[in-house]
């Protein structure tokens, strides 16, 4: 699974480099900026979609000693700070 991610990361890197070179050959320096901006927007969209489900919805317990996640709540319980 990790090698698959490395492969697609390498493919994306080579494709991005080729797109920048192609943009320069087609439209000069201004086209390089357009291609780079488009790549940045695509990457930001991918990150937003990937991490959308990982948003914290709020503390597991309410109050002054509330833990923000279940893992921290268990740690506080083990330490006697619940």
Describe, in plain words, how this protein is organized in 3D.
With 82 residues, the chain is mostly helical. Helices cover 72% and strands 0% of the residues. It contains 3 helices and no strands. The radius of gyration is 22 Å and the shape is elongated. The two termini are 39 Å apart. The mean pLDDT is 78. The chain crosses the membrane at residues 7-25, 31-48. Keywords: Membrane, Transmembrane, Transmembrane helix.
Secondary structure elements and their pairing?
Layout: H1 2-27, H2 29-51, H3 70-79
Helix pairs in contact: 1-2
Number of helix segments?
3
Oligomeric composition of the shown chains: single chain
- Principal-axis shape equals elongated
Tell how many strands the DSSP assignment holds.
0
Can you write the helix and strand succession as a string? HHH
Low-confidence stretches: none
Question: Which range best describes the helical content: under 10%, 10-25%, 25-40%, 40-55%, 55-70% or over 70%?
Answer: over 70%
Mean pLDDT: 78
Largest sheet: none
What amount of the residues lies in strands? under 5%
Q: Structural class, please? A: mainly alpha
Whole-number count of domains: 1
Transmembrane segments: 7-25, 31-48
Keywords: Membrane, Transmembrane, Transmembrane helix
Key phrases:
transmembrane; mainly alpha; membrane; transmembrane helix; single chain; 82 residues; 0% strand
């Amino acid at each position: 699974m990790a090698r698959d991610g490395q492969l697609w990361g390498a493919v994306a890197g080579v494709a991005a480099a080729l797109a920048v070179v192609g943009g320069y050959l087609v439209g000069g320096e201004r086209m390089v900026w357009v291609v780079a901006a488009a790549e940045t927007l695509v990457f930001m969209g991918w990150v937003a979609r990937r991490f959308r489900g990982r948003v914290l919805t709020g503390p597991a317990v309410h109050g002054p000693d509330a833990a923000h996640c279940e893992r921290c709540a268990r740690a506080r319980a083990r330490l006697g700070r619940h």
